[in-house]
Specification:
Layout (H helix, E strand, L loop, with lengths): L2 H66 L7 H68 L6 H7 L4
Length: about 160
């Protein structure tokens, strides 16, 4: 193996390793993003649960206050309690919706990161192949007395 062939092999191996390292880093980042997505969802569910508890507690306080004031829970007090329940449920739904959206956004970022890693790895293999082919064509041209780099391109285009 001549020095040119060794340089071509080193260049190709370097391109492959670079692509593989970028993919590994992207996979690691994607795993971290997946974990963040799970945490965002869990936090949202916990916040929604806490909100639902506080709404129920507030409704209970309302009922006690109405009872202490001598009101029955019919008519306006019942309407007030129902309105509190509906508003509380809307807040719970909003918290859950927001956490789902945040989690899905992070999952999308993770998927994009994985894709970028795969693309980097594929690019490394393509670059390695291109380097090897260009180097081999250049070496053939040099052995024929052509040192011009354009000779390699003419061979690639079928003109050499």
């Amino acid at each position: 193996m001549g020095p040119t062939a060794a340089l071509i092999a080193v260049s190709a191996a370097g391109s492959i390793m670079s692509g593989m390292m970028q993919k590994g880093q992207a996979d690691q980042q994607a795993r971290a993003l997946d974990q963040q997505a799970r945490i965002a969802m869990a936090e949202g569910e916990r916040d929604a649960q806490n909100k639902a508890i506080s709404v129920r507690e507030f409704q209970a306080e309302q009922s006690v206050l109405y009872a202490k004031s001598g009101f029955t829970l019919e008519g306006t007090p019942a309407y007030s309690l129902e309105r509190t329940r509906r508003q509380g449920q809307e807040e719970v739904d909003s918290i859950l919706s927001s956490s789902y959206a945040k989690s899905n956004l992070i999952k999308t970022q993770a998927a994009q990161t994985r894709t970028a890693g795969r693309n980097a790895m594929i690019g490394g293999f393509i670059k390695a192949g291109t380097s090897a082919a260009t180097g081999a064509m250049g070496a053939k041209g040099a052995s024929l007395g052509n040192t011009d780099a354009s000779y390699a391109l003419s061979i690639a285009n079928g003109l050499g």
